[in-house]
Amino acid sequence: MKAVLAALSVALVGGAVAQEAPEPPYVMTRSVTLPSTDTDWDYVKFQPGSPRLFMARLKDGLTVFDVDRGRAVATVANSAGANGPILLPQYNRGYTAMNDGSLLSFDLRTLKVIARTKLASDGGLNSGSLDPATGRLHVITGSRPAESTWFTIDAASGRLLATTRFPFRKMDDPAVDGKGNIYAPLRMDGMVLKLDSSTLKEQARWDVGCNVSKMKWLPEGRLLGACTGDKPSAFLLDPATGKVTSRVTIGKGLDALVIDDQRGRIVASAYEGNMTVIERVGADKLRVAATVRTQFGARMMDLDHRTGRLYLVNADSTEFPLTDGKSVSRYHANSFRVETWQPN
Predict the structure, then answer these.
(1) Is residue 218 located within the same domain as residue 339?
(2) Which residues pair with 302 in a beta bridge?
(3) HEC sequence for 226-275
(4) In this predicted model, what pLDDT tens digit does every residue of 131-171 receive, in sequence order?
(5) How far apart, in Å, are the Cα atoms of 49 and each of 43, 176, 343?
(6) Where is the signal peptide (predicted)?
(7) Domain count, the chain
(8) Which residue from 160, 162, 182 is spatially nearest to 173, judged by alpha carbons?
(9) Looking at the predicted structure, is the pLDDT value of residue 2 above 90?
């Protein structure tokens, strides 16, 4: 009997080992290297409905990469210091939050610069978000010692309408529901604020238990959030109750979060070198479907909604230790690349 049980155990173990893994959700099909300095980069964003990927490459400016042709086609003039593009075809306007505290505006069709307007005098701007309910663009400062500032812009004209200060050190891009509510992540405080989109007055605040840096509104009336820091995770939040209904672990160093409605996927890319592919199970639950290994430093990407392809950017780098136990990276010139990841 012992021999039979042992043989059965071996057979079961062997069967488990032999089980085939599913097809990978994404595979890299192309990598294009561009001329570059040793610059860092931040947001990359698609112009909705087009092949144009706008890449904020800081010292190298705002580069426009045509994904259908597989090459860079333009750099927006006077865009050195680009950090966060906001692309609004409904107004034929593009805006870019700059790291010197100015806002660059340009004609989206021609890329001709309209203005570069100084907004913040105490540091750089991070990015911004359009509220379709009011037609207002909220441009947000980067990290600050004590408070964040929102500059409210008329999206059609670029005119500054209001300046609002919040007593929080870091506020990232908010989610909007299109019904008069804005949901703003407070990264250092681990909370989400619900704001009235007309007045920016606080309506509620919810503790989500992690350094939340990404928020997305889902059509089903839920909020999708994602956290960086020492508790990297993606979560669902019910705005009717303020409760987190589901949470899954993602890679460390989150910097991009996209939703592919056609394939029912959520993808989070992280600095440590992976993309976490997440599926929804009903309205209030998430589950990790796969973890795609990329390369260290490949933190920023965007989704081409026309094709389902992901475009991930990275560059070679060397890391140097500092005396305080931290480190600093130096990027290698002419190594910046755009990777195409094809969905299966």
Answers:
(1) yes
(2) 311
(3) EEECCCCEEEEEECCCCEEEEEEECCCCEEEEEEECCCCEEEEEECCCEE
(4) 999 999 999 999 999 999 999 999 999 999 999 999 999 99
(5) 18, 20, 18
(6) 1-18
(7) 2
(8) 182
(9) no
Query: Residue 208 maps to which CATH number?
Result: 2.130.10.10
- pTM for the model stands at 0.93
Q: Do 243 and 125 fall into the same domain?
A: no
Residues 194 and 237 in one domain: yes
SS3 8: helix
| Tokens 């599926």 -> residue | 279
pLDDT computed for residue 16 by the predictor:
53
Answer yes or no: do 303 and 289 share one domain. Answer: yes
Q: Contact at 8 Å (CB) between 221 and 239?
A: yes
Same domain for 183 and 160: no
Indicate the residue type of 30. R
Spatial CA neighbour of 136 closest among 192, 186, 180, 105: 180
Where does residue 334 fall: left (phi above 0), alpha (psi -120 to 50 degrees), or beta otherwise?
A: left
pLDDT in tens, 9-44: 444 445 555 678 899 999 999 999 999 999 999 999
Range of the domain at 63: 42-169
**Distances from the Cα of 87 to the Cα of 50, 54, 120, 210, 248, angstroms:** 11, 9, 21, 29, 31
> Does residue 148 share a domain with residue 81?
yes
**Cβ neighbours of 178 (radius 10 Å):** 10
Same domain flag for 247 and 302? yes
Contact present, 136 and 161 (Cβ < 8 Å): yes
Please tell me the distance from the alpha carbon of residue 278 to that of residue 286, in angstroms, as a whole number. 7
Q: Is residue 262 part of a domain?
A: yes
Neighbouring CB atoms inside 10 A of 31's CB total 12
DSSP string, 119-130: --SSS-EEEEEE
Element (H, E) at 203: strand 202-207
Q: Which amino acid, one-letter code, is at 279? A: E
- Cα 259 to chain centroid, rounded: 11
